[in-house]
């Protein structure tokens, strides 16, 4: 545990990439295989489910530290992090623990889920007594399922590649798919043998950067493949030895959720890997993401929903054919093979070849991009025709050119404090629009303001609080902000009847009074435009 707590402290204490990689390399070289596997598990963003209720931990901490509940609450409000608050309030422990990370996780943390309240308190109290402050903080994070480390998965892969002496893309592929944090996994992860023993493993996804510069700066338009940017579920369809698998970008197998794709998946030639997007698609064409969302969280889908939201898998890349990895070949060649091998005729039920746009100039391309929303797509994808299929988000290969977001002017009516370094500030806001003389809430947003603006809004909230509901404050409706959002859909669960996707603040409209904010009718007009 000490070795992992030291690593966490080193990663949290620097913004230098080289120092982070060096700390990771030291950890993976010094740890035992079991702790290495758990380290990779946590550092790659995986977490244990919350094993103990937060209130239970708080009560245990108060009893040991001999604190009243109100004082703990005040400390928590000031610090802003539960694990850190408890680590600071508990009495000083010894110099540190003797067990490894794997021993702590498997013998003292995971068993908490199966223990009685009395056993849990005894286990937690003993753990706190055995750990120093830094280790106790990490222990608390693991128990609450809130461990987040300031390091990207790319840096973790770089460190593992350095330890193993293999290319980073090999490590990236070994980390894809389903795996368990076992000593055997860690040993295979660092193996010099580059043969993959899992036929269902997906390739690391190639991702796009948002286009920030004028599109003309990309050079000749003939150097680029231009496709629609679909608003669905990115997925790789894999048919190797064994059953086919449909892997989401979130590394979740999904084929059982889309039964209309099963027959085609089984019929694909062995040694095939396709990249594409799962979309709701009916006789009228592509359906809004809100329709597909009805199916995402259901492992079994009834006949009614299957009929209402049929799906298609829109294919835009061929990554493997007859067991040969094609990712290093130019995109134009991969696309040609895809067309020749799979789509000379349309005899693959549920599959559709992604259309390519062929504008002659960037001006024509800009016109097509401006018309994307009417076609039910988010924008355009610009892919370098001579480019390989990269790992992660390489610069210069793929660009996403999204349509301008929808916007409206809304009034701030509720606020609550943020988390982490913003725990002492009101940064999470609820916004409303007018409907028949009343303000109706419709969106929450917390990003888009500068630090100076956040502090100014925080002062306003404290000085203009009308009522308090637990952590939430009702605020005098005076401040107007322009909100941006990527989509809008009907929602019977919301009082406004609408829900917006990815709302954020574009700017503080200091030039507008609250009575000049937009109405619910204007949102309904946006919804009507999307629905057409």
Compute the CA-based radius of gyration: 26 Å
- Outline type: globular
Overall CATH architecture of the largest domain: 2-Layer Sandwich
Main sheet characteristics: 7 strands, mixed
CATH superfamily membership of the largest domain? DNA ligase/mRNA capping enzyme
- Mean model confidence by pLDDT: 89
Helix proportion range? 25-40%
* Straight-line N-to-C gap: 57 Å
Strand percent estimate: 15-25%
CATH domain topology of the largest domain? D-amino Acid Aminotransferase, Chain A, domain 1
Which parts are unreliable, with pLDDT below 50 for 5 consecutive residues or more? none
CATH classification, class level of the largest domain: Alpha Beta
By DSSP (H or I, 4+ residues per run), the number of helices equals 19
Tell me the domain tally.
3
What is shown here, in short?
This protein has 532 residues and is of the alpha+beta class. It folds into three domains: 2-144, DNA ligase i, domain 1; 209-402, DNA ligase/mRNA capping enzyme (D-amino Acid Aminotransferase, Chain A, domain 1, 2-Layer Sandwich), CATH 3.30.470.30; 406-531, Nucleic acid-binding proteins (OB fold (Dihydrolipoamide Acetyltransferase, E2P)).
Q: Could you characterize what this model shows?
A:
The protein has 532 residues and is an alpha+beta fold. It folds into 3 domains: 2-144, DNA ligase i, domain 1, CATH 1.10.3260; 209-402, DNA ligase/mRNA capping enzyme (D-amino Acid Aminotransferase, Chain A, domain 1, 2-Layer Sandwich); 406-531, Nucleic acid-binding proteins (OB fold (Dihydrolipoamide Acetyltransferase, E2P)), CATH 2.40.50. Helices cover 36% and strands 22% of the residues. The chain has helices spanning 2-12, 17-30, 33-43, 54-65, 69-79, 82-89, 101-109, 117-130, 133-144, 153-164, 168-174, 183-189, 262-267, 289-296, 303-308, 331-342, 362-370, 451-463, 520-531, and strands at 209-210, 224-229, 233-239, 245-248, 272-282, 285-286, 311-321, 324-325, 351-353, 356-357, 379-384, 398-402, 406-417, 426-435, 438-445, 465-469, 472-475, 480-485, 487-490, 498-501, 504-508. Strands 3, 4, 5, 6, 7, 8 and 9 form a 7-stranded mixed β-sheet that branches. Strands 13, 14, 15, 16, 17, 18 and 21 form a 7-stranded antiparallel β-sheet that branches. It is globular. The mean pLDDT is 89.
């Amino acid at each position: 545990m000490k070795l992992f707590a030291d690593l966490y402290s080193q990663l949290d204490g620097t913004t230098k990439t080289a120092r982070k990689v060096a700390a990771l390399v030291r950890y993976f070289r010094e740890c035992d295989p079991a702790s290495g596997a758990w380290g990779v598990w946590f550092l790659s963003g995986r977490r244990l489910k919350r094993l103990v209720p937060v209130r239970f931990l708080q009560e245990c901490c108060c009893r040991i530290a001999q604190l009243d509940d109100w004082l703990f609450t005040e400390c928590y409000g000031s610090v802003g992090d539960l694990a850190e608050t408890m680590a600071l309030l508990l009495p000083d422990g010894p110099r540190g623990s003797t067990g490894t990370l794997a021993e702590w996780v498997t013998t003292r943390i995971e068993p908490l889920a199966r223990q009685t309240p009395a056993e849990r308190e005894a286990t937690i109290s003993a753990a706190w007594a055995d750990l120093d402050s830094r280790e106790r903080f990490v222990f608390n994070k693991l128990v609450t399922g809130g461990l987040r480390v300031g390091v990207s998965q790319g840096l973790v892969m770089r460190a593992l590649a350095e330890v193993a002496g293999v290319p980073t893309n090999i490590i990236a592929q070994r980390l894809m798919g389903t795996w368990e944090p076992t000593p055997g996994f860690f040993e295979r992860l660092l193996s010099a043998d580059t043969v993959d023993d899992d036929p269902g493993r997906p390739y690391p996804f190639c991702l796009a950067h948002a286009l920030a510069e004028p599109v003309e700066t990309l050079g000749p338009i003939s150097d680029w493949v231009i496709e629609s940017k679909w608003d669905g579920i990115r997925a790789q369809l894999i048919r190797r030895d064994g059953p086919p698998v449909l892997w989401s970008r979130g590394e979740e197998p999904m084929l059982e959720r889309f039964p209309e794709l099963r027959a085609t998946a089984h019929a694909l030639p062995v040694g095939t890997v396709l990249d594409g997007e799962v979309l709701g698609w009916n006789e009228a064409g592509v359906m809004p993401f809100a329709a597909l969302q009805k199916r995402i969280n259901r492992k079994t889908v009834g006949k009614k929903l299957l009929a209402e939201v049929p799906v298609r898998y829109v294919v835009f890349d061929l990554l493997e054919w007859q067991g040969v990895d094609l990712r290093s070949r130019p995109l134009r060649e991969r696309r040609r093979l895809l067309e020749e091998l799979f789509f000379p005729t349309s005899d693959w039920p549920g599959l559709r070849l992604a259309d390519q746009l062929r504008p002659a100039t960037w001006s024509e391309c800009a016109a097509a991009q401006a018309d994307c929303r009417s076609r039910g797509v988010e924008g355009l994808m610009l892919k370098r025709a001579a480019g390989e299929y990269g790992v992660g988000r390489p610069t210069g290969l793929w660009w996403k050119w999204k349509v301008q977001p929808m916007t409206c002017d809304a009034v701030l009516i509720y606020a609550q404090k943020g988390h982490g370094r913003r725990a002492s500030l009101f940064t999470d806001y609820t916004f409303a629009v007018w409907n028949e003389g009343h303000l109706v809430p419709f969106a929450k947003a917390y990003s888009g303001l500068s630090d100076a603006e956040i502090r100014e809004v925080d002062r306003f909230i404290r000085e203009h609080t009308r009522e308090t509901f637990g952590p939430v404050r009702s605020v005098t409706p005076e401040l107007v902000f322009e909100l941006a959002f990527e989509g809008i859909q009907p929602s019977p669960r919301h009082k406004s009847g609408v829900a917006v996707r990815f709302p954020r603040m574009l700017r503080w409209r200091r030039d507008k009074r609250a009575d000049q904010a937009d109405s619910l009718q204007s949102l309904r007009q946006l919804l009507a435009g999307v629905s057409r």
